[in-house]
Every structure is written in structure tokens, then in C-alpha cells.
């Protein structure tokens, strides 16, 4: 996408409004507005061939909710960023978003249409394709819109050209080498696009051509949306595979999608996502509608008991269920990809030849229960310099095979000059791979009859084996970050931002502290939690919470 087009989205609304003065006669003060601030009303003037659409809610109440979060320093930084954006958009004008635009603007829909081919020229002999964007801006207060239009008549440095299309006036403007085309529909919506043809297609839609709102797959997700408090934005993709295929086909730097890849994408029928703000922070929800006849997705809920095997100072954690089943699904799908299939066969052969390990039987077959991978904060022993170590915990129904695998790994460690020793920690027999002057590099052992762990770093192994301190599932941070996520679920991704920040600070360049701006932003985030849930074979739901600290 050319730079002029890639920068279109940010200034487009305000640049377009600059030319509204030329069509002020279209705004009649006494005509009823109707529904101007909803996704469905905006989608009714978006052409049916739109690949996706995003609806941005401009209701101040939703955005003001964010003011309750963050440190004073972080709020000042964000205010400065918004001020800089406002000055860039409205440069060389006496226009203010807060006083001149905010009082009348309704919701904004940003639609992505199939790219439009450009005519080849001598400098670019091949035909190029460019992204095609349409903005639909709602008008919620015509009086303030008219006052704003009159004010804009005084603006300079804008070239205006008017044309007529099917009785609808289109205003073209050129400001700082950026072209924008605008029209007003029935005093309720302003259409904005960088290409005149896009506005004309939207006018055709307004006059009766099929719309995005009536498109198969789009109407249902537009009506349902995603249930988030104080919605800031909603994203609608009615035909996921078609969108990916068209965007890939028009990408001159890439290659068209392979049939195997397209078959994978066709498992997803549609997608709708929304982001909002509630008392915990910013929350993102996504609903993926799957084709049950094509989908290879096999959902399993997890009991989440394995979280209790990690200490409260765990920095990050990923949990899930049945790695073996995921491996089998991967093998089935990799049959259609020669490069993946070849890589698997090479890995199998090398493991068997050099370390006598069967990748399928010795590694994956016994990983049939709940699992967790975690990064645990520690400044002891060999972890003092890095500040954390790693831990992996697996539930299994096949302890015998797992023990055989660890025996093979211990023998391999001995051949690599590790000192393999047995220790008893909290009544548990633990095996450590030790190196001189550093202590244990790797440790593993059984926490109970069905649960085995592997730790990177001796102190982490001792902590997991002993587990005498507060566990992660009972920590306030974990409860805050994950407590409001759906249950049951397929597992968690969890991040403790306070502990993560301390690790980031440790690795800051030349031991210098983090820049104040970055430190203030990170200091406003308590943590991140993500989970996936599937109520049936046709639906997968993802929810993410960016837990924020309340301002003081």
C-alpha cells in the first residue's frame, strides 16, 4: 500500500469534514435523523462486496471510562499523544476535535473493500492493486454539523472540485497531496474515501444495490455483535476465507494462497470481535463461527488444577489440555504440506539416530492430560543474572512411558558431561542435571502419581517440588486477571506485568532504567489474561482482559 494511502485512515475523517462546507445545503436542520449511530445503519450504505468492517463507537461515555485507569503520569502521556494526533490531523487550522467535531459526530464505520486495480505506467509497468477504504461517519447533531461546516469555509490550502453522480453531489478535495472524496447521504451519514469510484459504489448501495448489512453471513454478526461493556469498537468479517484469499491475491509482494492453505481457512466461516472497557480494564472478545463439516478444531476444557503447581511469583503461564491430540491433528494437516511433512520426518529420523528417542511415542504419546508452561521469577543461583527460570508440568495417564523417556534423557545428559544426581525435596525424589559452580541446570520429578515436572534452573525446580509458599491460583494478581474470564475453558495465557516489568528493567540497555514514558505505561497494567472456550463444534470464543490499575 502506498504511503499516502497507508496514512489515510487517521486524517481522513477531519480532512473530509473540511469540504463539508461545500455541501452545507444538504444538511437540513428540521429533517429527522433516524438511526445514525449503529453498526447496522452504517452497514446499509457499505457495498456488499466489502471484505470486513470495523465500527468505532464515538460515545464519550465509553471512552471516558478509561479515565479511571492508569497512573497520573500514564494519563498525561496518553493525553499528550491524543493532542499530537489532533494537531497533526488539523494542522494549519483553528479546528478542535473536542469543541468542533465531538458534539455532532456519530459512530464511524471503516470498511475494507476489494482492492482496485491501478493503470500501469512506465515507472511501474506491472498492474498494481491498492487497498480500498470507505468511511461512513454518522451525524447525530445537524445543527452543530452545520456550524462546523460554516467554520470550515474559512480554511485555506484546500482545493475543491464538485461533481454529480446519480443526483448525489460528490466533493473532491486535495490537501497536501492527499485526495479525498466526500458525499452526504440524507443528512444522516457522510461517506469518505480516497477514491471517487468507492464513493460512487456506496451511492449505488444507498440507492438500492446490495449492502454489507444484507450480505449472507454479515447480517447475523452485525445484529449480534459481541457483548462487551462500554464498547469502543466492533470488527465484522463475514467470509474469512474469501477475505484472506482476495487480500493475498492483490498483494504484489506475496503469493496467492495455496489450495491447502485455503482449505484450512475455509474451516472458519465468519468472525466478529469487540473491545470495551469495564471495571477490570480493557476487554476483547471474539467469536469465530466454524464449519463443523470442515473444522479440525477439537476443543477440550481443562480443570485448571495444574495452575496450583506454580508459585505466586510466576511471571507468565500457558496452560492447556492434551498435547498429544494437538500433535496428531498437526500430523494430519501436515500431510497436505510437503515442507512440514519433510521437517517432521527429518526430526523423527535425527532423534532416533542420535539419541534413540521416538518423537511420537517417547515425547508426545504420554502428554494426554493437562499441561502448563511457565516462567518463574527467581534471583537465586544460576538464575541471578537473568531473574527467572522455566517450568513445565504435565498430567499423564501413561506414567510408565514417561518414566522411560526421562531415563533416556538422563542417560543422554550423562554422555554430555552433566552430573546426574538424585535429591529428596519435600518428600519427592527429584533428578538434577548439575554443572560445576552453577548447580542444577535442569531438574525433573513426579509431584504425584500422575503429574511430572521439568524445570530449567535448580531454584525453580525446588520451588515447584516444595510448593510451600503461596500458589499462583490463590494469588490476588492471578485472580484479578483471570477471575472474570469464562469457565470452563480450554486453558489460560497469563502475564503478570509487575514481575514482567522487573525482568524487562533488568535487561534494559546498559543497565539503564526504562524510559519514563514506557515505565509509566507498563506501571498502569496489572496483567494480561486470555482464554478460549467452545460451547459447540460450530463456535469458538476467545476472551482477553488487559487488567489495568485504577488511577489514584
Briefly characterize the structure.
This protein is α+β, with helices and mostly antiparallel strands and 552 residues long. It has helices spanning 3-6, 9-18, 39-43, 60-64, 72-89, 97-101, 142-152, 196-206, 218-224, 240-249, 259-265, 323-334, 338-355, 359-364, 399-415, 458-466, 476-482, 497-506, 516-522, and strands spanning 52-56, 105-117, 129-139, 159-165, 168-175, 178-185, 189-193, 231-237, 268-278, 281-290, 314-321, 370-377, 388-395, 419-425, 428-435, 439-448, 451-456, 492-496, 525-536, 539-548.
Characterise the protein shown here.
The protein has 552 residues and is an alpha+beta fold. It is 32% helix and 30% strand. It has 19 helices and 20 strands. It has a 20-stranded antiparallel sheet, sandwiched between helices. Strand 16 and strand 17 form a beta hairpin.
Helix/strand layout:
Elements: H1 3-6, H2 9-18, H3 39-43, E1 52-56, H4 60-64, H5 72-89, H6 97-101, E2 105-117, E3 129-139, H7 142-152, E4 159-165, E5 168-175, E6 178-185, E7 189-193, H8 196-206, H9 218-224, E8 231-237, H10 240-249, H11 259-265, E9 268-278, E10 281-290, E11 314-321, H12 323-334, H13 338-355, H14 359-364, E12 370-377, E13 388-395, H15 399-415, E14 419-425, E15 428-435, E16 439-448, E17 451-456, H16 458-466, H17 476-482, E18 492-496, H18 497-506, H19 516-522, E19 525-536, E20 539-548
Antiparallel strand pairs: 1-2, 1-8, 2-3, 3-7, 4-5, 5-6, 6-7, 8-9, 9-10, 10-20, 11-12, 11-18, 12-13, 13-17, 14-15, 15-16, 16-17, 18-19, 19-20
For this entry, give a set of tags.
19 helices; 552 residues; 20-stranded antiparallel β-sheet; 32% helix; alpha+beta; disordered N terminus
